[in-house]
Amino acid sequence: MLRKTKTAILSLISAAVLCSCSQTAEPPKSDTAAYNRDVFAMDTYMSMKAYGENAEKALEDSEALILRLESELSVTDENSFIHKLNSSENGTAQVSDSAAEIIAKALEIGKKTDGALDITLYPLLKEWGFTTGDYKVPDKDVIDSILAGTGWENVSLSGNTVTIPEGYQVDLGALAKGYTSDSIISQMRTDGVDSAVVSLGGNVQALGEKPDGSAWRVSVRDPFAPDTDMCIVEVRDKAVITSGNYERFFTDDSGKSYWHILDPEDGCPADNGLVSVTIIGDSGLDCDALSTALFVMGKDKAVEYQRREGNFDMILVTDDKHILYTSGIDFTNISSMDAEVLSLD
Ligand code: ADP
Ligand code: MG
């Protein structure tokens, strides 16, 4: 947990660096004045920056929106729709529109990724201690018996009604922040802002471009030195969302690390050759779902998936310290690792 907090603070600093790039040399005019707001929610530090005369109201509305979504989507808040679903006697609950939209996306991506994204792993995450910070490596037979009671394909959604089998528990942690950044960006638009950037624990989403007409410069952290930036991507109107093995992890007595993204195949931390996956695309929700799923799938399947679907860009970092990225992004490597463009065939 100490590690998580430190990383979160650093991501805030990183967001500050990112924001400092957006200042122009000229003194700000009223339509280019920047407004900032920091919020701690969803167990992470969030920072928002918006420009222009409507920015203050947009930030106020965005903060209220974040707090509303947190209370709707949290797996631990006793009043949340997800908590109601997980504790309901017959495994059925009416959920909010937001929760229903996220669950629909989770089931869609669960299907497309052959179950790499599985929102029913919560009982296993608890057993490993990732929900409390009280970490342990469970025995294999315990993992297997819990795993037998999971499976995204057994979640059914009809309108806003969700049904899960007895003993199942759903957790939207893999998608909630991406949905939240999408929602903030549309709130900003509604409030009349056309230039803004948000960083939700290092997951960034940009609205428009900087007031000087240049692209937003977003840094992605080095998974081998998470206090350091690995590369810069320049984006307009895009989400840049990363899943890594360095965000929430613990180390056993022998020095082996265990992290919070589990492989639904064996119920253990996904260890398929990747240490970080960054997805760049139009929708924060899609990018968040895919960052987790492709991390689980590993390099070859991730590349195959990206070629097949083709509607997003990505940056993969392998456990043997290579960066691979798709050609659709404006990418600058600032690490000592080599970076290779993924060929199209
Ligand atoms: P972060 O929340 O650090 O940005 P992710 O978006 O990758 O990272 O989400 C990781 C979270 O998703 C975990 O903390 C856990 O709650 C949940 N999770 C872990 N493994 C899976 C999986 N295979 N499918 C769906 N959700 C998962
Ligand atoms: Mg994710």
> Can you tell me the overall shape?
globular
Helical amount: 25-40%
The total count of helices amounts to: 9
Quaternary structure type: single chain
Condensed summary:
The protein has about 350 residues and is of the alpha+beta class. About 35% of the residues lie in helices and about 30% in strands.
Describe the structure.
This protein has helices at residues 2-20, 55-73, 81-87, 97-112, 122-128, 140-147, 176-190, 284-297, 299-309; strands at residues 34-41, 44-51, 92-94, 156-158, 161-163, 196-200, 203-207, 216-222, 225-235, 239-244, 249-251, 257-259, 262-263, 268-269, 274-281, 313-318, 322-325, 330-333, 338-341. The protein is an alpha+beta fold. The protein is globular and about 60 Å long. The protein starts with a helix and ends with a strand. Magnesium ion binds next to helix 8.
Main attributes?
345 residues; alpha+beta; nine-stranded mixed beta sheet; three-stranded antiparallel beta sheet; 19 strands; 28% strand; disordered N terminus; binds adenosine-5'-diphosphate; binds magnesium ion
